[in-house]
Amino acid sequence: MPTTSLIDLTDARDDDITSMLTHAHRTITRSKAALIAAIAQFHARGLAEHFGAPSTATWLIRHFQLASSTARELVRVAVFITQHPRVADAFYLGRLSYCAVRLLMAVVDESTTEDEEDAIVAAAEGLTITELRAALAPLRTPREDKVEKIRIRTQDDGWTTVSITLNPDTAAEFAAALKTAELSNYGDTTTKVEDSDDQPGDVADQIAGLDPHGTHGAGVVGVSRFGAPARVRLMGAFKAVVHIVRSQPVSRVRAPGAEVIYVVREDDGGVPRVVSDPSAVATGRADKLFNARMRTLLVDGVGNAVSLSSSTRLATNRQVKALVAQWSGVCATPGCGHSRWLEMHHIVDWAQGGPTDMWNLVVLCSACHTLVTNGQMRITIDDKDPSRLHFRARGSHFVSCRRGAPVSLESLLARKAPTAA
What we know:
Blueprint: H1 14-44, H2 47-50, H3 56-64, H4 68-83, H5 85-92, H6 98-104, H7 114-125, H8 129-136, E1 149-154, E2 160-165, H9 168-184, H10 203-207, H11 231-247, E3 262-264, E4 272-274, H12 286-289, E5 297-299, E6 305-308, H13 317-326, E7 342-346, E8 361-365, H14 366-373, E9 377-381, E10 388-393, E11 396-401, E12 407-408, H15 409-416
Antiparallel strand pairs: 1-2, 3-4, 5-6, 7-8, 9-10, 10-11, 11-12
Helix pairs in contact: 1-4, 3-4, 6-8, 9-11
């Protein structure tokens, strides 16, 4: 029997699609808010027992085919919003998503004052979930009963399960050890590598972490210098740690970088080639393939590539470390949050006179950097207020104040709008 789609959007304009998405999402959010408000009343009135269920969650499972964990979460959120009307109002109006409300539950409690709740809600309305999670992290109350522990459980067939709970400091050291071990799997661990913070990174430092497919590591042979090892490489990194400890070599791989060297020859048409595999990059436009990194070539008056450009084109190791720390180890673009395949982008293009100074650099993942290179996203410094960084894409405009988490311009303007007395 032939079927027809509910709505045929094949011929819809791009702007109509985005408008429909925005409207549908707001409708879904408000509908979910209404559902949770009803659950709150159902729970407050104790109607579950009246309708033959031992709890509100059980009644929801029975009637709505919900998973047990989902039902219990809905009840917890329902109880939360009855206790915090300001969060509830923003939720009902569609200004806060369900995910945002769940995040706020970790920091808003009975000790939160009305003014504090207002400030938290106002800030949350202008942040993506990625930035909101990072902003709320310092406000979470740490559990005092947590202790470090490691459990090793061996099964009958010899397979072993290792479970580790670490405090943040030890966890960071463990992650760094895994990263070093991951890199040692792809390079020489016995050769000393110079590690001067003031030396500019070479071409490899700038493009070694590039994922040419924009998939941030999925199915890509290369290894990113930044972030924790990809999930598919965690086991290899862990085994490398074990091997390093057992064999006790001196690992001199310069964290966090894997040394991949590209050679660009004047008589080779300016095509960059990998030293170990000259055919690795034989065709294609270098500026697209390497995310515009190969604009470091200098060209003479008749168009011949003559040499690599000045080393000031490349961020120094010290600058890279500072920038990555400044942006919390993730891509600076709103909502991205990727911690691998990071690159240092000149806000004012180097070819247009933009210096390789801290104020003119921002951390981008390779995919977002490609969007900027292709003109699909623009990053600019505010003409009147240099402390503000603007992220513009079609249909969105975010502002980073003093290189902090980007906030939607709409939300930023709403905060400054005068209120009626």
